[in-house]
Design brief:
With 78 residues, the protein is mainly alpha-helical. It has one domain. Helices cover 44% and strands 0% of the residues. The protein is built from 3 helices and no strands.
Length: 78
């Protein structure tokens, strides 16, 4: 939970390096399937990319800085 909050929100919960690798592998394999297939012109399957968590709000192209206090307050029960 700490890592997810640090990355930008609870939508990152469970998104470790392994999940990111599998999502990238899915995208590459789907593109290779479309390219290497013997499809009739215009009949190629449309494969959507793997859904990833949002990128979060960015300020000047950089992610906003979060302090430990901000992270602690976001995880506290109210």
């Amino acid at each position: 939970m700490w890592h997810a909050k640090r990355m930008g929100g609870l939508e990152y919960l469970g998104w470790g390096e392994d999940r990111q690798m599998f999502a990238a592998m899915h995208d590459v394999l789907s593109v290779l399937m479309v390219i290497s297939g013997n499809w009739k012109k215009g009949k190629q399957p449309k494969v959507d990319p793997w859904k990833r968590p949002g990128t979060g709000a960015k300020v000047d192209g950089k992610s906003p800085k979060k302090t430990v206090k901000d992270l602690y307050n976001s995880m506290r029960r109210k």
